[in-house]
C-alpha cells in the first residue's frame, strides 16, 4: 500500500522510510515519557498527556506552535472540524484561537513546541495564510525533534550554554520546516499589533502584579493610547492579562504535577479557588476535572 510523504515522495508500508518513521515516533514516545517524569524548566518542548478525552473551549495560541501527535488524535472543533492523527503535525499560527479535543488511543500524548518570531529565516506571514495546517511529519522533521529531545537531560552546570543548545535545535527545526515549505502558518509579522506587543511583555512574568502605568512606561506609550489601541483589537489590559494567566495555567496543569495552588501562584493568583473559578469560566472545565483526565 502506497502513501505520499510531505516531501512528495511515494513510500510503501513496510519500506525503510516507513520503518524509520515508526522507529523515530517510538523513540520520541520514550523520550516524552522521560520528560514527563523529569520536566526541565525552559526546555522548548512540552509533553501533553491524558487517558480520558479532554475538551477545551476557545484556547488561544500566543506563539506560533507546532504540535506532534505521538499517540491518539487531536480534534479541532468548528469552524475547522479537522483531525490531526498520530504521526502528524498540527501547525498553528500566532494569535489563533479555537476549541479542540484530545482523543486518547489508550492514551493521548503530544509534543508541543512554541517558536519565537526570529526562529524563521523569512519574516511575515504568506498571503491568505490559514490559522492552522495539518501535515504528515516527515523523517527530517522527526529526526530534528528527536535530537532536540535528546538534549533534555543535559547537566544544569552551565544553564546558559544548555539554553543556547536548546535554542539552536528549535531554530534548526524552523529551518527544516522552511525548506519543506511548511513554515507559512508559523511565520510571524515583523510589525505586531499592540495586543501582541503587550502579550510578549506580560508573558515574561505572569506571576507579577502588573499595572498598566508601568507597562505603558516600558512600551513607551500613553495609557489612553494603549487602551485605545487594545480596544481596536477587541481586548483590554485586564482581559488580556487574565487570558494569558489562564492559558499559562492550562499548560501547567497539563504538563506538571504541581498542586493547583502552586499553579495559581505561578499565574499571578493568590487564591486557588479564585483561579479555579476563572479557569472553569474560561475553558468550561475545572482544573480538577482536567487533572482527572490525565
Query: If you average the pLDDT, what whole number results?
Result: 90
How many domains make up the 3D coordinates?
A: 2
CATH class of the largest domain: Mainly Beta
Distance between the termini: 36 Å
Count of strand segments: 11
Number of helices: 10
- Low-confidence segments: 1-12
Largest sheet: 5 strands, antiparallel
* CATH topology descriptor of the largest domain: Jelly Rolls
Major sheet strand order: 3-10-5-8-11
Structural class: alpha+beta
GO cellular component, one term: cytosol
Protein name: Helix-turn-helix transcriptional regulator
Keywords: DNA-binding, Transcription, Transcription regulation
GO molecular function, one term: transcription cis-regulatory region binding
Structure, explained:
With 294 residues, this protein is an alpha+beta fold. It has 2 domains: 2-186, Jelly Rolls (Sandwich); 194-292, Arc Repressor Mutant, subunit A. Helices cover 43% and strands 20% of the residues. Strands 3-10-5-8-11 form a 5-stranded antiparallel sheet. Helix 7 packs across helix 9. The chain is globular.
Give descriptors for this structure.
about 290 residues; 5-stranded antiparallel β-sheet; Jelly Rolls; alpha+beta; 4-stranded antiparallel β-sheet
Topology, pairings included?
Blueprint: E1 2-4, E2 10-12, H1 16-37, E3 45-50, E4 54-60, E5 65-71, E6 73-76, E7 82-85, E8 88-92, E9 97-103, E10 108-114, E11 132-136, H2 139-149, H3 159-179, H4 194-202, H5 212-219, H6 223-232, H7 237-255, H8 260-266, H9 272-283, H10 287-292
Antiparallel strand pairs: 1-2, 3-10, 4-9, 5-8, 5-10, 6-7, 6-9, 8-11
